[in-house]
Amino acid sequence: MAGRAVGSSWPLVFLWACAPDTRTFTAGTSERVCQLTGETEWTTGLPTTFKPENRGMEGTDLGYPVEHNGRLALLFGDTRMRPPPPARDEYGPPDDAVGWITSESPPTHDACTDLVLNAQFPTLLVPPRVLSPAPIKQGLFNVPSGGVSKDGWLYAFFWTDHCNNGSERPCPESESLNSVGRGVLARSHDFGETFHDAVPMPFGFVYSTAVDATTVDTLPPEQRVGTYVFGVPLFRGSVPYLAWAPEGKLLDPHSWKFFVSLRGDGQPKWVTSDSWNNRDPFLFLPGPDLYPAADADRCVGEFSITWNRALRVWLLLYNCKVGQGLQSIVARTADAPWGPWSEGTVILSPADPGSPCNLLMTRNGCGSQGDYWKPIGDGSHVLGDFYAPFVMERYTRSERTSVRGTRRAAVYWLVSTWNPYQVIVMRTVMEVYTPPTRSIYVGR
To answer: Which residues pair with 73 in a beta bridge?
Structure first.
């Protein structure tokens, strides 16, 4: 309320402004659409709609989507082909995969996608190779984490020097092979078969991806340049960081600016590469995390960030252990890449009725449905788990709503399932509601 000060001779003016409530995000039930990978549909045992060109793929994960030159590239992780390759470890041989989709129509149960892998027909996988004077590990647990298309190049972020710290084969925790790993950025001009010009990622950008700012039509013109890069320092144990790469400088991290906090006016505060790498504590107050998070929420590992045109928000999806031993899929939204970001909303949980034996293997098995990892010593089964939720923005479709201030969209996204170790296409109807503001002029 505004009015005159005591003793003022100015006419009395009252203005009430109803401040907008916080924007709300809701999501309906996440539905299984189809199995994207593998030759056999896990729930039925019948052949999938997988293309014959992909014959021999038994299992894989990830599949980060990147729109590139009119097609959708998918960057898959450790991929199992038939017959199996010779003995392998973190050092190699490279076992990731790159696939391509041209279909514009949303996937259905009967026609998933027209995915075709980079392969020499019929079963010889052609994994992406990062060419570098210093060899880049691309074997087990060393995978592409994300990517972006820029200036005709397909850029990919690779997680390397990483090993899974298991009881039977613990990580050596050396500089060149450890349970944290490091990030590498490289680019390809041959449809993802080889990646060149590899550069190490800055401090804290271990598992990363990016968004081309020129594709986001709601940012102010001065912010619609360059590339926004997101990365987490500790896999499944931290919150994303944000950097901005100027046009033409994506392969020069020294020229990047790094987000350290929101200013009082809601605009981002950036620091130079030198300040970021020196990590001056005074520059980092209150902290460079993309959003504030308690210990239990510091869980981001595999994630995707996209600009959702239908909902008119930035959409972050990631997996997190939400009060249980298995991963759930969580969504957050924001008006700008630096936030402020909403609270997390669980959109898929292992406890959902549609999860056991429809998406995930249970401890007691799922009848005749195959166990990818085979029963363990006591006859029980390796539990399935959710991870790597990646939005395929090309398939997002607006849906009608009669509620003023509400935008609704059907969002198609990928999720990896540890057992049966396949990538599944999911569909979730999401809504964003922003109450309109109102002002009332009373008089003078």
So the answer is: 66, 100
